[in-house]
Amino acid sequence: MNLLFIGDIVGRPGRDLIRQGLAGLVDRFAIDFVIANGENAAAGFGITREIGEELLARGVDVLTSGNHIWDKKEAIDYIGTEPRLLRPANYPAGVPGRGSYVGRTAQGRAVAVINVMGRVHMPPLDNPFTVVLQEVQAARERTPIVFVDFHAEATSEKIAMGWHLDGRVTAVIGTHTHVQTADERILPGGTAYLTDVGMTGPHDGIIGVERGPALARFLTAMPSRFETASGDPRLNAVVIDADDASGRARSIERIALTRDALVELGAPSEREAPVR
Length: 276
Ligand code: FE2
Fold this sequence. Notes:
Blueprint: E1 2-6, E2 8-9, H1 11-28, E3 33-37, H2 49-57, E4 62-64, H3 74-81, E5 100-104, E6 110-117, H4 128-140, E7 146-151, H5 155-165, E8 171-175, E9 185-186, E10 192-194, E11 199-202, H6 211-220, E12 233-242, E13 249-258, H7 259-266
Parallel strand pairs: 1-3, 2-11, 3-4, 6-7, 7-8, 8-10
Antiparallel strand pairs: 1-12, 5-6, 9-10, 11-12, 12-13
Bound molecules: fe (ii) ion.
Residues 39, 66-68, 151, 176 line the site of fe (ii) ion.
């Protein structure tokens, strides 16, 4: 089966890319299951019920998140009612929401999605390396197809997680930095790995926000209010082909498309146009 994982959807520019291009992408890559990180979907910070419902209605099967999951207060209630919206599994016990979900493809195949968050240059949560093993064990009792979104800053921590889970899961894909890395590979045990899938949103700012205020913070060390950037919208994603029976990844392909390229990819080609 083919899994599509879409990198951090940032604000309206990111949501517009989903609206304009997801159906075409699913068609072109024969996608069976769509996962997307949505923690920045609401104006760059957090997610609301309305936006979560919109993304799920447009074809996303599971939404993952990270440190920004609580930015919009309503997410605390929403996550309790929507099992397809995940927060990192290594938040302390008793925190609202869940860190994993098992969905089904149109053909009825089960796909487990697990979300964990790193601790290097990140808020101090429970140990993701031990928590993820419990989640993986529970998931593998239900399906061999197990996808992990590791939301983390440090490349070392992410690569360590890839090796930690090699042979135990279908894929370990990083999020949070908003910068796509070029180190995709299939590890020896059959786990697809990529340090960071990147960002689906405006690429002319500083990781999704307008350059001016972000640069001012570096220049003055004073607080400044960030607004979502708008220019150069691009979709960053990854497609993983997994063996249904074993859960091993067969291939991993990185996707980085401008809006024009995305829309063109989804448009029927001349060859497919009706003959008159
Ligand atoms: Fe994040």
